[in-house]
Protein: AP-3 complex subunit mu-2
Amino acid sequence: MLNSLFVINKQGKIIIEKHWRGIISRQIVDVFNDECVKFMNSLPGSLDQENGGMSGLSFKESFFSREDVPPVLETNKYWLLNVLRDELTWLCPVEREVDPMLIFEFIHRIIDILTDYLGDVSESSIRDNFVTVYQLLEEMMDYGYPLTTEPNALKEIIMPPTIMNKVITTVGAAAGVAPKLPQNMSSNVPWRKAGVKYTQNEIYFDIIEEIDATIAANGTVVSCEAHGAVQTNSRLSGMPDLTLNFVNARVIDDVSFHPCVRYRKWESERVLSFVPPDGHFKLMSYRASLSPNQALPLHIKPQITSTKNGGRFDIMIHPRSTDGKPIEKVALTFPMPKSTTSVNATCNSGQYMYDPVNKSIRWEVGKLQLKDRAPALSGTFHTSEATPELGMSIGLEFQINMYAVSGLKVDSLRLFHEGYKPYKVNYQWGACVRTESEV
Structure:
């Protein structure tokens, strides 16, 4: 399935190279970098035109950035499947027809595992833990096919990098390798290690939702839906078998489960039946369609006018009813015209920062409540063009704890095959909302 994996930094240099089914030349990375530059320097609508109507025009700046590069690039011999995450590009060249979503899912699983081991996945953290990274890549895939991808099983084989492990490495011992074989290799439940014991048996469920909404300049909701996930922290002894019921499970759609969930049980009864892994894991993710008439917790009122070689903007954020819950971590991103040379602005709440490289303003308001006055940001900008283009979109981010927009709630939890009762069962829910308002 998968031949090779290259991890490339933002300068286009290789920092990780792993081959499972034959060696692919490193020159493929140069081909990929050239394809990225070619795409970023192309004109919109002219990617498939050799001599389009705009081919005679010259532009000082690219229309596209690295984030706009397609996830699949085609060359004469390979399809270049790539994922950009945290300024690192994960490149998988394939020469046979494969399911691209399977490869993308495996790449994200690798990144999630490395995040669990290293804390954050960056060029410096990878360089400091080369041995652990290559050991994980060796264990997670066998001859191009996924083998072991569960954190609990991997930690039984490869110990996470700690100061003690690095000391052991310096004195010549086996670097990061577990001193004994994992206990769950022959288990029917590969995601849960055997012999787990806790003094207090606890399990926590966090329902986290994110709203993606597009709002027109007149305030009309163009599209609105919620993407959610149930994050779980299990500290239960033995081999517990759990059944989780929701109050209104019918509101969710496009569900994706952890391998521990029995899918047939969900299809027939809309309940989650599973043997949980030990520790933190994502039990499920889902999507819920929201009504366009549903009032969003925040409303933006932008006013942008253009003048000669510049313009003026006035933006206000109005909070709405959220069942008494405060709106936290409010941040607004306002892109400016590409020809902007300077910005002068003031705000009555929070603080703002202008990025002259990306030509955008980020306004961090902080915490809002319904009784607070509406935050406002106003100012002027100057451009090198006489009539700057003002077709921009405003991005808004905020969080509301203990507030589920879709209405999904946990009803009950039942435990089987163990004699104890959970000491604590916590149900929490929240919302992390991102909206985009076109102006």
